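New to this. Help decode the following:
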Amino acid sequence: MEAPEMKLFYHPKDRMRLTVGEDRTYITVKPRWASPQSRPNHYLALLDGKGEEITMLKDPKDLDAESYKVVCKELRARDLTAQVSRIIHAKQEFGATYWEVETDRGTRDFVTQNLQENALWFTDDHLLLLDVDGNRYELPRISGMEPQSQAFIHAIL
């Protein structure tokens, strides 16, 4: 399947659909990144309503402009990654770490277990925290955060 043949759209307003040429239509489509950490924004799988792969797009930007907008909107709605701008409070207790943070999605409270496995350092300044519910909290530039946030990170990690 070639990207120019594909048209992604909402119908009804909350269900993403896919048509391929004049040939096929998929009533329910869910986009998923194949390797979000190692190859961000590349290799997008389009899955049907049963979770079966319809196709894989090496670069979603190959889609027409409207289809690309639909995919981006759907990915953002399904993305569980919040960008942390400030750590309001953090404490460790009995092997769990309790966080209160300011994010691009508002103030969030979450819990992490076993930070050796659930705190992923991409660089010395870029951290990803995975909470007990599978949500992701990204701290892309710790050195740019205010001193209190940096102090919490250095004390806990």
Residues 18 and 26 are 5 Å apart (CA to CA). The chain has a mean pLDDT of 90.
